[in-house]
Amino acid sequence: MSDLRVGLLGAGNIGTVHLQSTRGIDGASVVAAADVVPDNRARAEKQGVPRTYEDYTDLLAEEDLDAAIVALPPFLHAEATVAAAEAGCHVFVEKPFARTVEEGQRMLDAAEANDVSLGVDHTIRYQPEVQTLKEQYDAGRIGHVPLASIARINNGPFAAPPARQPVSGWMLDPDATGGGALMDLGVHLFDVLEHFFGELTVEYAHVDASMDLPYEDSALVVVSTEAGTQATVSAGFFQWETPPEITGYFRLEGVADTLRSEDHLPKQFMAHAAKSALENVSKRARGQEPAYFKPTYYYQAHYRALKDFLDAVAAGEEPPVNGAAGLRMVEHVQTAYEMAEGTRAAANAGANVEVTDD
Amino acid sequence: MTESPRVVGRRTDVSGPGLAGAVTDLVADCAPEMDDVLVVPDCHYAFHPSTGMVTNPDVVEALVEALASTTDVTLALPDSQWVEDAPSMLGYDALADRTGVETLALGEADTVERTVRIDDERHTVTVPKPLDEQAVVAVPTLRADPDLAAAMVTVAEAATGSRERSDVVAASAVVDPEFVLLDGTYTFTGAPHKGRFLVAGTDAPAVDRAVAPVAGLKPKAVDYLRPFGVGREAIEGLHAEDLAAELPHEQTDPNGGEQPAVMGAGYRLYAKMTGDLVPPQFSGGSDD
């Protein structure tokens, strides 16, 4: 079978990760990329993309593609995904899948009408330490898990000191992003919980902002799950992040013991990078493929997510993290926002807040 | 002999009546009589005020209240070159609503060109006209990120959007604040700290000379101070050495944790050897 011909819609930071990832996936290659920023197009060309376009609609009109990767800002996900689906492409969409449930449904409808698959880049479930927890949980090593907690906190659109790069205006526009920390990071966390514990129900939500921001920079959500696990979800945009160190955790409180994601992270990222790089040098010497992105640790998750999607497309199977899953996560965020609004309104009215099924 | 300008300090709470009292005392003690003043805080980025990377708006609010009893006060808010609406995100719209103080968007004001001679060289800066014409009260924070940014940098960033040495020197000379209230409620010296102090004075370079040692820097190591003198400056009511001992003095990564270019070159070489993939932070300038 010939290689899957992939079009990259958006060749910025995350688009470059997907472009590189595709280079490490057998049976797929990026044949064209589109980006409105000339430097991004130039970078894609330097990295071996044969043709680049300023406008992704021109790319879709000119190229004969099997799949498209939508790595554009959230306000373009629906438009680009529908266009790619109508061009006959299977589509891998960056998170959040959509800004609203209505947008997400439109994307699913377009995929169904054109008989193509959708996938979503929900990466945390693909992080090595989370995969280790999943193996241990699935093997029953801690028994039933009544409680879990999961968090991801970063600096959102802002930087750690000193100020040095302008923040793009769309990043601070909730109409463009669909929301704040809960939409940007919470969708990943909901995805992990559903991956582990099945269907989720949002039971309580509260969001807040530590400055006068146009959206929340902290969110706390409580969910119940099909497996009978109750979980807290914490997402934040308020903490300075200095990669490769990131702030996030997943903790499962089982009846027999506790599983903690931190226990399975590299103790020293620089030492891990050096060791992984040497391992890859050794693999090369033996004529083997490297462990892609292993020295940089977190990018492995993007590689694995895209590989799963493209492998499923090549096999004619439904992707493991499909458009319906992406839409469900957006629904959870939207439910949480509505619940938080109700919580706030009730609190403002002096009520002792209690959420019921009514 | 010219009398050295006074620099006065005191400890304070970070908010509430304790802060308001400290601000009122310092204004009464050393602020000159002023008419129609412009209050200029450091709001160069949407950093949370508890980090010390920007002025604590509670200090500005207390100052506005203290000054408003004797003169007209306008809150002069500079554009941030990094974040649109940074002053609004820091709470200055809400502050104006609470206090009734007028606000002036410096980015929308008429400008004037002024030329300053620095070390026998002429340097021209374009500054908002109100900063040139009206009495200015600068309200800097104390930050070392890693270079010192106090009164003079706050004035320069508000006036020119730049903290290049020549712009800092020229803008400080042109704007020449009548009064400086340095906010040390929260400080940043490589790491945030609840400093719980204020420093006031009528001469911006003198205030910067006085607080440089608090930030762990000798005045002569602060390049933009040289044309104004780099001698040690005492702070009445506070011991700079004691304050300095309380503060953390950590290195600030000028890249904010992002990988330097040299690592990118090394990584690309490794990737070429092994066939591994190159993440975006290492792909800059690559011809691969």
From TrEMBL, chain A:
Gene3D superfamilies: Dihydrodipicolinate Reductase, domain 2, NAD(P)-binding Rossmann-like Domain. It holds the Pfam family GFO_IDH_MocA_C3. Residues 4-122 form the Gfo/Idh/MocA-like oxidoreductase N-terminal domain. It comes from the Archaea. Residues 130-242 form the GFO/IDH/MocA-like oxidoreductase domain. InterPro entries: Gfo/Idh/MocA-like_OxRdtase_N, Gfo/Idh/MocA_Oxidoreductase, GFO_IDH_MocA-like_dom, NAD(P)-bd_dom_sf. This is Gfo/Idh/MocA family protein.
UniProtKB/TrEMBL annotation, chain B:
It holds the Pfam family DUF362. Residues 37-144 form the DUF362 domain. InterPro entries: DUF362 (IPR007160). This is DUF362 domain-containing protein. It comes from Halomarina rubra.
